[in-house]
Amino acid sequence: MLLLIISAIQAVLQVMIIVFFGFCLTKLGYFSNDKQKWLSKLNMVFFTPCLLFSNIASTISMEKLLAFWPIPCFYIVFAGLSYTLSQLTSRAVGLNRSYRRFVTACVMFSNTNSLPIAIISSLAVSEAGKILFWDADDTKDSVAARGISYTLFFAIFGNLLRWSYGYSLLRNDEIYEEEISESDSDTLDGDRLAVPTGTYGATTTHDIERQPQQEQQRQGMPDRQSSSLTLAAQPLDFDTLKKPQVITTDGDETTNLLSSFPTLPTTTTPTTSEQTKKPSFLTMSDDNMLICIARRIHRFMSPPLYAAFLGLFVGLTPLKHLMYDHDSFLYPCFTKAIQVCGHAAVPLILTCLGAQLTMIAQSQQPAQPAMKAPVFTAIFVRMILMPFVAIPIAIGFVVYGSSWSLLATDPVFITMMIVLGCTPTAINLVQITQVNGLFEEEMLRMLFWSYGVVCVPVCTILVFVALSIVDKLV
């Protein structure tokens, strides 16, 4: 039992030590606020996509897709239960719609890369790793390889959903819908008229009235300090720069300010009903309809999600042989270059997390009561409730699944499904909050408590329970 406990602690501390390095670098002055923001965004648009592409393309194949069929089933069940528990619990504690989305994202998207891989790698080389041997000829290297393979295959589905649905959960949905509507309107107007309208330098009643609607997203959420930590995370939206900005002052002053800007000539003056009319796909040409569809898809996508789909395409087509055959020309130069860049993603995420936690501790006041409720709700559901759901499901698969899949007899598979179902929230969610400029402080506080306080004891107990189950049942 002592060996199991020591192995679990070693696996969790591997992650926490890298976070501590980020803390030390910030204290020594190597991590400023601007540098950390720049590095985090660079990681999301380059290093993380390299990691996802290399992991998915090298792991996925049609044979594994058929042999590993229980893994997507486990993911679908875990994701569905996480969504249900997060919705029920957040509604029970009285959270508003914005914070329900925050809790849902934190609960649904767990750490499926750095922590599980660190845990299985540590377990494989420990004395307790002999419990995970599948047969008498099994080795520690084989245990680690199978565990990483299961983890990466599970992570494929998590990454696809995280960088699509998860990305939309952690953004301002009202502004998002408005941007899509305005993009469609621009396309529709371009299809109707060949000359520009007078909306560039003029302001309509709709423009003024829509501003309070954008603030509805913040209703019920605590006021934040306008620190550089939050402001620097807001992305630069070129579509917004093109739109007229209204300065809320006295009526005469607003009129004078607006009249000082030139207006473009128009050939027609649109009526109020035309200005507020929603675009219809029936009135668009085929080209503009395709443009609108492409815009909607692009707004739903993200660089890591593009990389994940590209990895699926390469892994399931003959291109995989061209890129991952060791005798091919591309493998030592192009493929290995992508893999090396991907290896930098997880350390950068963890060190940036340490830097972010340090800076928010130095610059922010104690969390307000309205902010504490969603943070601790997410931690409670993710780290406390989910183990009571994931462990019985894994036990049921061991007892009844052996006739359906050989994976039910593999101790490594059962251990990894328990770990993957109960790990803390994904660390790279903080990248999404930084880019979207929403829920950043809440996410940092949640990750601090999850990894700095709750993770070590809970994951230690979790790994101990998983090893005990496979020791007795498998």
From TrEMBL:
The entry's keywords: Membrane, Transmembrane, Transmembrane helix
GO biological process: transmembrane transport
GO cellular component: endoplasmic reticulum; membrane
Subcellular location: Membrane
The protein's name: Auxin efflux carrier
Residue numbers spanned by region Disordered: 180-227, 251-279
Primary location: membrane
The keyword Membrane is annotated on this UniProt entry: yes
Cited InterPro entries: Mem_transp_PIN-like (IPR004776)
Compositional bias (Low complexity): 254-273
Membrane topology: Multi-pass membrane protein
Chain segments annotated as transmembrane: 6-30, 42-61, 67-90, 102-123, 143-161, 305-324, 344-361, 373-400, 412-435, 447-470
